[in-house]
Design goal:
Layout (H helix, E strand, L loop, with lengths): L4 H57 L46 E5 L3 E6 L22 H8 L11 E3 L14 E4 L9
Antiparallel strand pairs: 1-2, 1-4, 2-3
């Protein structure tokens, strides 16, 4: 039997190429998982931003315009936050109607039988990345309501359990009230 160095080198090259392909596959898998986590984290941040914008708009809607005004007209359509029908001026509580960033569909609307729309929630059944909201500090004393709302998100197993709800001044966000949850229907919504 004659030893052929070219033949043994070809076998080594084949094995080295095979190992290189396996290592590259593992590395691409890790990069893919990391990229997926980054994208999910960004969508989660956008969910928090958009939900907060909507709940603050609902809060402004429910704020009495004068000290003598007791009752506030219930909010029946999210579109009314774009242009307040109660005002002759072009009063806007929200710049645009945002979609749910996790599903790219309309929000699940949360209603109170007496006060109309009080909040929104995502319909995503995914598990949230964020479990702690200790770093979400309010910008001012008036934002303490938001701090309580974020604390109510802790320990939730689905994004759909994160309810961006305005229950009223002096009522904690986690407080249970009678709510009716309905999917939002649109008829040519501006924004998007």
């Amino acid at each position: 039997m004659v030893f052929n160095p070219l033949r043994s080198a070809a076998g080594f090259t084949y094995i080295a190429a095979l190992v290189l392909v396996i290592v590259m596959g593992i590395m691409l898998g890790v990069v893919g998982q990391t990229w997926t986590q980054i994208m999910k984290r960004e969508r989660e941040q956008e969910l928090i931003f958009r939900g907060t914008q909507i709940v603050q708009a609902i809060r402004r809607w429910n704020k009495p315009k004068t000290p003598q005004q007791q009752a506030v007209m219930p909010l029946f359509e999210l579109e009314h936050l774009l242009k307040d029908p109660r005002s002759f001026a072009n009063l806007r509580h929200l710049r645009r109607l945002y979609k749910d960033p996790l599903t790219d569909k309309d929000w699940r609307v949360i209603k109170d039988p007496h006060r109309g729309i009080i909040g929104v929630a995502s319909s995503s059944e995914e598990e949230p990345l964020r479990q702690s909201f200790q770093t979400m500090t309010p910008l001012s004393a008036s934002d303490k309501y938001l701090e309580q709302m974020f604390k109510s998100f802790e320990g939730k197993k689905k994004y759909s359990e994160w309810e961006f709800v305005y229950r009223g001044e002096g009522v904690a966000p986690g407080t249970t009230t009678t709510t009716v949850t309905t999917p939002r229907t649109t008829t040519g919504t501006p924004g998007g």
